[in-house]
Design brief:
The complex is a heterotrimer of chains A (about 325), B (about 270) and C (about 350). Chain A is mainly α and about 325 residues long. Helices cover about 65% and strands about 0% of the residues of chain A. Chain A has one domain. Chain A has 13 helices and no strands. In chain A, α1 (about 5-35) packs across α11 (about 260-270), α2 (about 45-60) crosses α10 (about 225-250) and α11 packs across α12 (about 275-295). The N and C termini of chain A lie far apart (about 60 Å). In chain B, β9 (about 235-240) and β10 form a beta hairpin. In chain B, about 40% of the residues lie in helices and about 25% in strands. Chain B folds into two domains: about 1-90 and about 180-260, 3-Layer(aba) Sandwich (Rossmann fold); about 100-175, no CATH class. Chain B is built from eleven helices and ten strands. In chain B, the strands form two sheets. Chain B has a six-stranded mixed beta sheet, with helices on both faces. Chain B has a four-stranded antiparallel beta sheet with strand order 2-1-4-5, covered by helices on one side. Chain C is an all-alpha fold and about 350 residues long. The mean pLDDT of chain C is about 85. Chain C has helices at about 15, 25-45, 45-70, 80-95, 105-120, 130-150, 180-205, 205-215, 220-225, 230-255, 260-265, 265-280, 285-310, 315-335, 340-355; strands at about 165, 170, 175, 260. Classes of the chains: A mainly alpha (about 325), B alpha/beta (about 270), C mainly alpha (about 350). Chains in contact: A-B, A-C, B-C. Chains A and C meet through α3, α5, α11 and α13 of A and α6, α9, α12 and α14 of C.
Chain lengths: ~325, ~270, ~350
């Protein structure tokens, strides 16, 4: 095989890996949208917040240290050496569940029956709130996330692919980040777990019932409010996983919350209600933007990843407004 | 006898004709080979059990659904493929089964929107307001005020329609359709969900509109008493097919219609 | 008791249809305008110009624009920042190409250019709705900002990639550049905003406004009763972009003086304007002003209290500001989805009855 062709494969592979990361965030959107019809813009910030909290617990930061210092003139920052990673993850999950409960109690409960677009804007408000709150609690500096996942290029893969090149060609093997492979594996496990959960547990069934028809679900005695808490907790869990993955990859920082924006075109492609759609949409966007940047991006100034996904989604919408897996919309009066 | 002779004299030539309309969604046939006509000045009822395809038929006439087969003739001309708003401009106004008012707007604005098809000033004059735009606005306001008087809804002129009770909303919706001063008025279950008094009011309005303005009316209604009293001719649909077509009396005695409504005994 | 409409009879439809049907309201508005035009220019200083009045006017213009699109026509847009960038760059290119041109004309032309770009990005709205459309407008936001970053023609090949406003005049009085006096920049913005607020009011109360609201409230029914959706939606996009483009031009030329696209016209600006519209009141001209004032004044106030009075570090204050703004948005959506404008209306209704509530 020629090096050019191998390079192309490398681009596609890396696109697939990036796509899985997008899908991971999109998954959280789909869960909440299915269960409550809310388009949760705050999903990205939830990932950031979860990552911040996890790192905070791990390294033993004092929450709100900045604020305490400003008010009392003290100088606190850490309460110890931090805690075991596993324990920290459990505690963070606890925080996310608490958060889900608070959101239901103080926001969603009061917005029942509002138009979807109002709910959407409320989640934008929620995103701002959480961003301020997360920074206030843990500080806004860039943090390192280390939960023991391996990272860096895979030498084994590099050696294997080196032998694929044609005899005598200048080719040094493909680069693939081990972390990405792990992320892919974890994402697949997550999807399997979620599918099993929704198919084979009582809560899962209730969840699907609510997704299908709120009112009918209410009449058979499903508590909408507790379902929402469950859904937001699961979305919080997905956000935690996404936060760990993205955080390990590029550090825990503000830009993490912007992956929410990247997940939007993924959802447009996959449809808002389909879990497989979210995965496939993510893969298409991931591969598409990497390929576009590799082939055309260089010619027009680069950094096309900033907008490619949205423009792709836009064109896609023009021809198939219901997404890849959505049902055809028949309008009625 | 003289009353019916009066009516017969009022009814003119064919205004709208649908020919062999077939409409399907995916594999589901909503309408199969439906043909009927509506004559100028008459009140034409379309009846049939739920799911018979009545509203689909109105949607075809409004240009909202495009049938796979068949033709619509209006004013003696075959209608090409048309957008709904172009149909409205030709002079067909309508109301909807589930009230489709503009909830954020006042009664007055809803009615003024009904006159949309007749307002002409361009964006520039509208931006300046003083001059042609204001003049046009006032002219149309006056026409709309006539309709408000006619329907007796003066008191709710400035109320956002979302706050009005159901019966009032139905009345405002009729007003919005009237405001268009259309030649043909399509009413989709104008009396659904009303109490007796409201129904009587609505019947009066329908008859008055037909009498005073000479507007042709096609209406869908489930209340057979109303249908038989109001309409000149009735077309009956069932499962997307035409069962019968004729005067109320003819339809009432039609065996197929009786079977469709009362069911057939299978012994 | 004092604020009431009893005895204020209307004898013609014209007087019934005017913008402020109640006499006291009319006096109040004339009073505000008189102060804005005749008093403030004489007392304005640099601080008030740069931190309060000019930004308020600039963002009020943007909020008017977005309110036309989102509040009146029901099409949510997250591309405001991108359209402001179009206005800013169009303004810059015009200023450089025609140094003699009156600045009012420059800003209006920049608005017209933005309107055309707005129409192009509004085309998808004919097929897609709701937040699908919101995502589509994100394409405008990111693509436009990228474009102004990457194509050197837009910033006249300057080494820094920035654009900066040269000194330009209105009737020989400088309104841009470092030497422009505060009263001149203020009056320049004020005139534009007042004139175009009046235009917005006219458009929204007439045929066009009703076609927008009809599309917003029930698009299918609107089309069936004769509102052409293409014309209604595209005109909303065009006019909204026109306003946003003018605001972008003012933001760059008058307020910032020099700009770099990613920093000045990022997605955060889109959200800021959206918040103004929500807080102020969707579908209300007055609301656009109230929302802009609120979102401009709150940060100034918070910063003065936390940094100035309490002596907290600026970054901490910024976090708390984020948190409070997010909370305020949610509180508004829960307690008063129609925004400050609705609160104002309710207060007026109460006032009419006061002091005899029965």
């Amino acid at each position: 095989m020629s090096p050019d062709f191998l390079n192309l494969i490398e681009v596609i592979l890396n696109g697939l890996m990036a796509g899985i990361m997008y899908a991971l965030v999109a998954l959280g959107f789909v869960l909440i949208f299915k269960a409550s019809g809310i388009f949760n813009y705050a999903q990205g910030v939830m990932a950031l917040f979860a990552a911040l909290t996890l790192v905070g617990f791990q390294t033993g930061q004092v929450p709100f240290a900045h604020l305490i210092n400003a008010i009392f003139g003290t100088n606190v920052h850490h309460w110890g050496d931090g805690m075991n990673t596993f324990l920290a993850i459990l505690l963070t999950m606890g925080v996310m569940i608490l958060f889900a409960w608070l959101v239901e109690r103080f926001v969603l409960k009061h917005l029942v029956n509002q138009e979807p677009i109002i709910l959407f804007m409320a989640t934008i408000g929620l995103a701002f709130f959480m961003e301020g709150f997360g920074d206030l609690m843990w500080g806004a500096d860039i943090k390192n996330m280390d939960v023991g996942l391996p990272s860096g290029g895979s030498f084994w893969w590099e050696d294997v692919t080196k032998t694929w090149a044609a005899e005598g060609a200048e080719y040094y093997g493909m680069y693939i980040d081990v972390l990405d492979v792990w992320a892919a594996g974890i994402a697949i496990l997550l999807v399997i777990a979620l599918t099993l959960f929704s198919q084979y547990t009582k809560t899962g069934r209730a969840l699907r019932a609510v997704a299908d028809d709120h009112q009918a679900a209410l009449t058979v005695g499903i508590s909408l409010r507790s379902i929402w808490v469950v859904v937001w907790s699961i979305a919080g869990f997905v956000a935690l996983v996404a936060g760990i993955m993205w955080g390990s990859k590029s550090g825990v920082q503000f830009s993490l919350s912007l992956i929410a924006l990247k997940a939007l075109p993924v959802l447009i492609l996959g449809g808002f209600t389909s879990i497989p759609g979210a995965i496939i949409g993510g893969l298409i966007i991931g591969v598409g933007e990497k390929l576009f940047e590799y082939t055309i991006g260089g010619m027009i100034g680069g950094a096309t990843e900033n907008w490619f996904a949205y423009v792709l989604a836009l064109f896609f919408l023009m021809f198939r407004p219901q997404g890849l897996f959505g049902e055809r919309i028949i309008e009625r009066v | 006898m003289s009353a019916s002779a009066d009516r017969a004299a009022k009814i003119g030539d064919t205004m709208l004709e649908v020919k062999d309309i077939t409409l399907s969604f995916g594999g589901v046939k909503a309408l199969t080979d439906i043909s009927f006509d509506i004559k100028e000045g008459e009140i034409r009822a379309i009846i049939g059990p739920n799911g018979a395809g009545k509203s689909s038929m109105l949607n075809v006439i409004s240009g909202f659904y495009h049938p796979q087969q068949g033709e619509v003739w209006f004013n003696g001309k075959k209608r090409g493929p048309m957008k709904p708003y172009q149909v409205a401009r030709q002079g067909i106004a309508r109301t909807f089964q589930n009230i489709a008012l503009f909830k954020g707007m006042s009664t007055l604005d809803n009615l003024m929107t009904g006159r949309m098809t007749q307002m002409k000033t361009n964006l520039f004059w509208q931006a300046i307001w003083k001059g042609p735009a204001e003049k046009e606005e006032l002219e149309h306001r006056e026409r709309v005020e006539h309709i408000i008087d006619f329907l007796g809804i003066q008191a709710i002129r400035k109320t956002p329609v979302g706050r009005l009770p159901y019966g009032m909303q139905k009345r405002v919706e009729l007003g919005r359709a009237l405001a268009a001063e259309a030649k043909l008025l399509l009413l989709d279950e104008p009396m659904a969900g009303m109490n007796l008094e409201e129904k009587e009011d609505m019947c009066r309005f329908v008859l008055d509109v037909n009498d005073e303005f000479g507007t042709t009316i096609a209406l869908i209604e489930h209340d057979m008493g109303v249908v038989m009293d109001l309409s000149d001719r009735v077309v009956v649909l069932d499962y997307g097919q035409k069962l019968a077509d004729g005067t109320p009396d003819e339809v009432r005695s039609n065996q197929a219609v009786i079977d469709a409504y009362l069911g057939v005994s299978h012994d | 008791m004092f604020y009431r409409e009893a005895g204020d009879f209307k004898t013609s439809y014209a007087s019934d249809q005017q913008t402020f049907p109640i006499k006291l309201d009319r006096y109040f508005v004339w009073g505000v305008l008189a102060i804005a035009f005749l008093v403030i220019p004489f007392v304005i200083n640099d601080y008030w110009e740069k931190s309060v009045l000019v930004p308020f006017l600039v963002w009020a213009m943007a909020a008017l624009g977005l309110n036309i699109l989102t509040g009146y026509c029901g099409q949510v847009s997250l591309g405001t920042g991108g359209f402001m960038a179009v206005g800013a760059y169009a303004c810059y290119k015009l200023m450089v190409a025609f140094p003699e041109m009156n600045m009012f004309l420059v800003v209006i032309l920049a608005g017209l250019i933005t309107a055309m770009v707005g129409i192009a990005f509004g085309l998808p709205s004919l097929r897609i709705k709701g937040f699908y459309l919101a995502v589509a407008t994100l394409a405008a936001q990111f693509f436009l900002v990228w474009l102004f970053n990457k194509v050197p023609w837009f910033y006249n090949y300057s080494a820094s990639g920035q654009i900066s406003a040269p000194e330009r005049t209105v009737f020989d009085i400088a309104v841009t550049g470092p030497n422009a006096p505060p009263w001149a920049t203020y009056l320049f913005c004020l005139i534009l905003v007042v004139v175009f607020a009046y235009v917005a009011r006219n458009l929204t109360r007439g045929r066009t406004g009703r076609s927008w609201m009809a599309i917003r409230d029930m698009d299918i029914a609107a089309e069936i009763i004769g509102v052409p959706p293409l014309q209604a939606k595209l005109s909303a996009f065009a006019i909204s972009s026109f306003y946003i483009g003018m605001s972008g031009a003012m933001f760059f030329a008058i307020y910032l003086g020099s700009a770099e696209p990613t920093e000045a016209f990022g997605i955060d600006k889109s959200f800021l304007v959206l918040f103004m519209v929500i807080v102020g009141g969707l579908g209300s001209i007055l609301g656009s002003f109230l929302g802009a004032a609120f979102m401009i004044l709150i940060p100034v106030l918070l910063k003065n209290i936390m940094v100035g009075v309490l002596g907290w570090p600026a970054d901490l204050a910024a976090h708390i500001e984020f948190l409070l703004i997010g909370a305020l948005i949610m509180i508004f959506l829960i307690a008063e989805p129609h925004g400050l404008a609705q609160l104002w209306r309710v207060t007026k209704e109460k006032l009419r009855l006061w002091p005899f509530p029965h």
